[in-house]
Amino acid sequence: MSQIEMMRIRLGMVDDHENRISNLENNMTLDYGQQRVLEDTVNKTVIDVLGGKGADAYKEIGKKDGSSWKDGGEASGEAERGRGVHTRD
Asked: What pTM does this model have?
């Protein structure tokens, strides 16, 4: 086997690993702990962007958009029941 053929085989192996890693990254589910970390990070970021819990924008969002917060809770509840939440669609 020539050196060029050996290199092609090695490169093919690397491509296969890249495909497998990409597949895992796109299809793994989050466990409950990961969901909690993600939820906490999102909540902190939203609060910061709105200007803090004392800001009028925060208070207004809490009044009008309570359903959005509930939807997130339902998603994490699914993981508790063993269904999980996919990282990507």
From this structure: 0.45
